[in-house]
Design brief:
Blueprint: H1 2-5, E1 11-14, E2 16-18, H2 28-37, E3 43-44, E4 51-52, E5 54-56, H3 57-69, E6 80-83, E7 89-90, H4 91-101, E8 110-111, E9 121-122, H5 127-133, H6 141-155
Parallel strand pairs: 1-6, 2-5, 3-8, 4-9
Antiparallel strand pairs: 4-7
Length: 160
């Protein structure tokens, strides 16, 4: 649309977005946090070795706004940008971070190794977003997960 009609548009691609408000308990972060809050073992559908980006929702919202604010620039309009924390981790590595933050060391993940047809390793480079837009994520994985855990704790009304 940019090249054909001159519309100021750009494409934003993000890693796996996580954060409070996601009620799909089959997804890794909400399902794991909920399991630990309820004193249950989190279920891992894969073998735990699949690698993904994990991108905090507040960083995702900020990257969309940042990109939209720059659409009048020639180097931005009509272009595609990847946004990611650029720290790909395995499923089990993410579970271990959540486990540590929630002090749930007594609850080992239930690794089922049932996932089929998924890409084993999938992550993004944000190099173009850094160089063209001057963009960087504001949250580390731990900072984002701490906020996320607190959101689910309040939502599920579970005290520490």
């Amino acid at each position: 649309y940019h090249h054909t009609y001159g519309l100021p548009v750009a494409i934003a691609r993000c890693g796996n977005v996580y954060g409070g408000g996601d009620l799909n308990w089959n997804r890794l972060v909400p399902g794991t946090v909920r399991s630990f809050l309820l004193g249950e073992r989190p279920v891992i559908r894969s073998d735990g070795e699949y690698v993904r980006d994990y991108f905090f929702v507040e960083d995702a919202a900020r990257c969309y706004i940042h990109l939209a604010e720059r659409l009048d620039e020639n180097a931005v309009a009509g272009e595609a940008f990847n946004f990611s924390a650029e720290s790909p981790l395995s499923v089990l590595e993410v579970v271990r971070v959540i486990q540590r933050l929630m002090n749930s060391h007594n609850l080992e993940p239930d690794v089922r190794d049932e996932a089929r047809g998924e890409i084993r390793s999938q992550y993004l480079s944000s190099a173009k977003a850094r160089s063209v837009l001057g963009w960087r994520p504001e949250f580390t994985l731990e900072q984002g997960l701490e906020r996320t855990i607190e959101w689910y704790r309040a939502f599920l009304e579970v005290s520490e």
